[in-house]
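Reviewers of the previous submission asked for a worked example of the structure-prediction workflow described in the proposal, so we include one complete record here. The input consisted solely of the amino acid sequence. No template or homolog information was supplied to the procedure at any stage.
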Amino acid sequence: MVNSIGKPKVKDSFQYLYASIGTQFSWYLPDLTTHKLDFISSKNFDSNIQYVWAHPQKDIIYLALSDGGPGKKGSYHSILACSIDRKTGEPSILGPKQRVPYRPIHLSTDERGENLFTAYNNPSSLSVHKIEANGNIGDTRIQLSKDQAGIFGHQVRITPDEKTAILVCRGYDATDTTSEQPGCLKIFDLTDGELRDTKTISPFGGLGFGARHLDFHPSGHCFYLAIERQSELHTFKIAEEGISDNPLFTASTLSKPLQSGVRQANSAVHVHPSGKFVYVSNRTYPAAPTNGRAIPNGEDNIAVFKINEISYEPSLIQSADTLGSLPRTFSIHNSGKMLVAANSEAARKINFNGKVTSLPLSLVSYEIGENGKLALKQQISFQDKDQLLFWVGFL
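From that input alone, the workflow returned the following structure tokens.
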């Protein structure tokens, strides 16, 4: 692994904002002056959209599809390639779906767009498919066995030098009847689409290490890892000899102490294109079954961190409310000027004034200031939707 990976390539073509609610895939036109979204159209797919990733050089996207969801395995799972018309934003199916054995929870490509990597959570696994010259999905190259893939795979990322694949494994919290199951990072050497298991990173044996998603700093010297179950952000060093076994820095993504009756869990993490800031979404769940009662309004927000230019240490500078519940995903426009978050579930919560408030699914857009802080500009609510707003992204 080289000392400086370099900044990942970003296509110069115009970006639309895409969002999935169940099987519905919608796209919006972003205005970088008002920092608002205008709805264009939507398209329906046969299965729930789990995740989407863009080809690094072509106007093609890859969709992870399943009739399963959180806590539900499902029985029909696939991955699909679509081309994007840059004039209209409309996706068009390129070829037949490729069936996969389990619910695909995340996918990504290498920087040359030659291989498609897919992560599965139940059972934890990782597959590699060849990407054809036309961008379509080819044959399966690799399907990891259960003993190679940790516990609860949640994301797979390829370092921008294309030499290393990282499978992020979340593990499970302890319950009344089971012990905690540890999280880890499974590290693989990557050569011509082939994986070689090199090491497992699991600080303190993986206990208290509920790793969920990571994103690379543009310098290539480190990455930032969202630790879901502990609401922490860990900074890992990347050096000539590889990825550090333990984080350089550990920071809470929360701005205040945990409330009674609340379970916090962070989710997505994205580094600003400038490398000066990193953003993490926080989510509030009930700590125990509520039997339909409203739950306390904890931190459903975007945590904004300023990154030290020399040490890469992140410091919390803002916690921007998303005005909704469970912002599972968010995305930053490649200009670095706009962020859109997705409140993924409808909920009834007790606000800080003690009033019960019904919160629908919603998209929330922000202007990103020169100082990295977020200024709320728009909220688009979906009052009549009872499915999950499961993914959002600028593509």
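Confidence is low (pLDDT under 50) at residues 1-12. We consider this example representative of the routine output the project will generate in years two and three.
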